[in-house]
């Protein structure tokens, strides 16, 4: 880890939402560069930190060694947090923070293939295993690609982009894909937003099953938290935020069960969350030092003593 560690977005607001007490058991569900974990440790909490990225796990070992036993780093997706904590006899926990989406570490490393702004292999795998972006784009049917771009990137001209991708196959580099999308959509250098943003987001979400993972992770956190425990979730685009907002509204009794992304609820249950806070976004000072915070939204709620809701499957 560097001497000047990455500072995650909305750090003060997340710590306030978690209300970390000395000796409390906290989960950093998305360890990344360790920013939230460092702050929780500094507040006296014990941390169980999760990450599916082998690079993050390797980079975090120095912090584990320096934590005097207060940090346990777990190489797993956050949807597995309940099972992983149970295996360590660490349930229930007092708080869970989830920072959803791609990390700055991944974006800033061209070899990971997440950024259309830097040339690298067309990869995008958070876990560095399984189907890559190139594998998907070079083998999937045109209709499947178009559906992914429309659903996960909200790309209004998804059919045109998918047709251009298929015509340009095989694609192996991030710059190749970005240029195909730009040409298909008539991008000009002076345009404010690069149209390949939506395509890269969509493919990344699909490859990493991000919305399904988020739905499963929220339910796992619900089961892992003890009464009075806090769940803080930071999202970076509307698809994620809508899912989290609906989860908290549903679980706090504000909505009937049912969502095309959230697991189906078998029967109406007692509210498992309360004190759902208003959405929080970054202030001007934070935006000035970290432009990536512009799209961040934090939602926090507190666990009740009611049993976790029973779900019938997930994405």
UniProtKB/TrEMBL annotation:
Keyword tags: Cytoplasm, Methyltransferase, rRNA processing, S-adenosyl-L-methionine, Transferase
Functional description taken from the UniProt entry? Specifically methylates the N4 position of cytidine in position 1402 (C1402) of 16S rRNA.
Name of the coding gene: rsmH
Recorded GO molecular functions are: rRNA (cytosine-N4-)-methyltransferase activity
Please give the GO cellular component terms listed in this UniProt entry.
cytoplasm
UniProt EC number: 2.1.1.199
Species of origin: Sphingomonas populi
Q: Where does S-adenosyl-L-methionine bind?
A: 34-36, 51, 78, 99
- Record localization: Cytoplasm
Q: Does the keyword Cytoplasm apply?
A: yes
According to UniProt, the reaction catalysed is: cytidine(1402) in 16S rRNA + S-adenosyl-L-methionine = N(4)-methylcytidine(1402) in 16S rRNA + S-adenosyl-L-homocysteine + H(+)
Supply one GO BP term: rRNA base methylation
Coiled coil residues, start to end: none
Q: What is this protein called?
A: Ribosomal RNA small subunit methyltransferase H
Species lineage: Bacteria, Pseudomonadati, Pseudomonadota, Alphaproteobacteria, Sphingomonadales
Family per UniProt? Belongs to the methyltransferase superfamily. RsmH family.
Q: Which PANTHER family match?
A: 12S RRNA N4-METHYLCYTIDINE METHYLTRANSFERASE, S-ADENOSYL-METHYLTRANSFERASE MRAW
């Amino acid at each position: 880890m560097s001497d000047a560690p990455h500072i995650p977005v909305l750090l003060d607001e997340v710590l306030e939402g978690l209300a970390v007490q000395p000796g409390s058991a906290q989960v950093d569900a998305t360890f990344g560069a360790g920013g939230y974990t460092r702050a929780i440790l500094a507040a006296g909490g014990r941390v169980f930190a999760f990450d599916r990225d082998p690079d993050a796990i390797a980079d975090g070992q120095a912090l584990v060694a320096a934590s005097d036993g207060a940090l346990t780093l777990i190489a797993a997706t956050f949807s597995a947090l309940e099972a992983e904590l149970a295996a360590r006899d660490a349930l229930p926990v007092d708080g869970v923070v989830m920072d959803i989406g791609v990390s700055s570490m991944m974006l800033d490393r061209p070899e990971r293939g997440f950024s259309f702004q830097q040339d690298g292999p067309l990869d995008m795998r958070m876990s560095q295993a399984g189907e890559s972006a190139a594998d998907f784009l070079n083998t999937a049917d045109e209709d499947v690609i178009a559906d992914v771009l429309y659903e996960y990137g909200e790309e209004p001209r998804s059919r045109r982009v998918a047709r251009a991708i298929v015509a340009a196959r095989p694609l192996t580099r991030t710059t190749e894909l970005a240029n195909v999308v730009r040409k298909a959509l008539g991008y000009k250098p002076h345009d404010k937003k690069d149209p390949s943003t939506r395509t890269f987001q969509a493919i990344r979400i699909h490859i990493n099953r991000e919305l399904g993972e988020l739905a499963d992770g929220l339910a796992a956190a619900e089961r892992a938290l003890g009464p009075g425990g806090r769940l803080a979730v930071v999202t970076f685009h509307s698809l994620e935020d809508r899912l989290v907002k609906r989860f908290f509204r549903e679980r706090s009794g504000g909505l009937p069960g049912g969502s095309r992304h959230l697991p189906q609820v078998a029967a109406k249950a007692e509210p498992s969350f309360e004190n759902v806070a208003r959405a929080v976004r970054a202030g001007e000072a934070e935006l000035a030092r970290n432009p990536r915070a512009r799209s961040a939204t934090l939602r926090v709620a507190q666990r009740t003593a009611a049993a976790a809701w029973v779900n019938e499957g997930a994405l």
